[in-house]
Predict the structure.
Amino acid sequence: MKKEIKVRPFIYFILILAIILSVSYIIEFLLLRKEAIDESNLLNKYNIEIAKQLQNKQINIDKINIENIEEQKQTTAVESERIIKVKQLKQENPDIVGWIEIPNTNINYPVLQGTDNEYYMTHNYKKEKSKNGSIFLTKEYDWTIPSSNLLIYGHNMGNGTMFQDLLKYASQKFYNQHPTIRFTTENEDAEYEIISVFKSRVYYKSEKNVFRYYYFVNANTEEEYNQFITNAKKASLYNIDASAKYGNQLITLSTCSYHVKDGRFVIVGRKIE
C-alpha cells in the first residue's frame, strides 16, 4: 500500500505536466495561425484595392478585331495588377523585391531582401516581429547583374503557411499538378518551369564532393552553371524532362525538412522565355 501511495502523486504530476504542455502547444499553434491569417487578410486588402483601381481605369479599345484586343487587355490587366501590387508594397517597405506564387497552393507572398539573411527569418513584410518570418531572397543576389539564381528561403510552418507546401512536391503527382512558379517584380511578371525537386541538408565545411546548392547565386562561368544544373537534376526525387541551359534565369526555393539533421527541401526552376 505504501508503494502505491508514493506512485500515485508521481502519476498525477506527469498527467498534469502533459496537460500543461498540450495546452501550451495548442495556444502557440492558434496564435501563429491567427498571425498568419491576419497577415493574409491584410495582403488580400491590397489585392482588392488594386483590382478596383484597374476597373476604374479607362482603356481605349480599337473596334477592329475586338475579340483579340479584349483577350490582350485581360492579360495585360492581370500582369499590371501583380506589378502594381509589388510597387505599392515597396512604398511601405523598400526591402520588398517581388511577389512569389505557386498557383492553387498556400504559397502566395511578398518576397523581401535584407542586408543579411537573418532579419526576415523573424520579421514579417511590415518589419514586425513574427515567428512566421517572411519569404526572403538571399542577400547575395545582385540585381544589377542580375545574378543567375534567385535563391529564396522560407520557413516550413506547422500551421500550413509560408513554404510548408513545398514539401508536397515529394509527390510526383503534386508536381504534375503544380509545375510552375510565378515571380513578379516591379518590372516583370515571369513564370518559372520546375526542373528539379530534391532533399538536401546543410553540410559541414569538412565534407567534400557534396552539392551545396545554397552557395549558387551567380555563375562565374558556363561550367559552373552547367555543374549546378547537373547536380540538381541528379539529386531530383523523380525524373523531370524540363532542364535549363547556360543563360537561363533560375529560381531556387528552399525550406527546412526533417528527414535528417539540418535537412532542406529544395525546388529549382528555370524562367520561361
In short: The chain has one domain: 3-271. Confidence is low (pLDDT under 50) at residues 57-67, 71-77. The helical segments are 2-56, 66-92, 172-177, 222-235.
